[in-house]
Amino acid sequence: MTGWAADEEFAGVTPQLTVVDTAAAVRFYAAVFGADELLRNHAPDGRVMHCELLVGGGRLLLHDEFPEHGAGRGPIALGGTSVVLHLYVADVDAVFAAALAEGATELMAPQEAFWGDRYAMIEDPFGHRWSVAQRAADPSVAELQERADRWAEDNAGVSPNGAAATERRD
């Protein structure tokens, strides 16, 4: 292992999201996920350069779009994202309902997933995709494989997140 140092506040991977309106994103993440804002810094023009939230025991960093400085654009400007942020919660149904009430788009309604979780997916108003889950069962490795195989047989052409599969690799 090379080149990284542990930090108590930033253990592991810390997502940094680009959004079109950090203040609105903070309100959404607080209302839906119970996020606590830890700090926020602004650029001279008022845009948010850096915002730290505590969500589910981990840090989430946010900033407004700064394309002129290479800080990028959010998924809305880019036409989508390939990333799904995953969060375990106490009540998937309540979080899902809160997300929709706050302007999220339903990607997958809460359901029992083959891997043992109650699971749902949303896209937040800023274009970021989230999956939320709560443990419903704890299948063995063999049972998990059996469930996955059965799911694949029953859902040919559909990805595990419910979307139509657009590419298959053999």
TrEMBL record:
Annotated Basic and acidic residues bias: 144-153
PANTHER family (UniProt xref): BNAUNNG04460D PROTEIN-RELATED, VOC DOMAIN-CONTAINING PROTEIN
Region (Disordered): 141-170
Name of this chain's protein: VOC domain-containing protein
SUPFAM superfamilies tied to this protein: Glyoxalase/Bleomycin resistance protein/Dihydroxybiphenyl dioxygenase
Pfam families for this protein: Glyoxalase (PF00903)
Domain (VOC): residue spans on this chain: 9-135
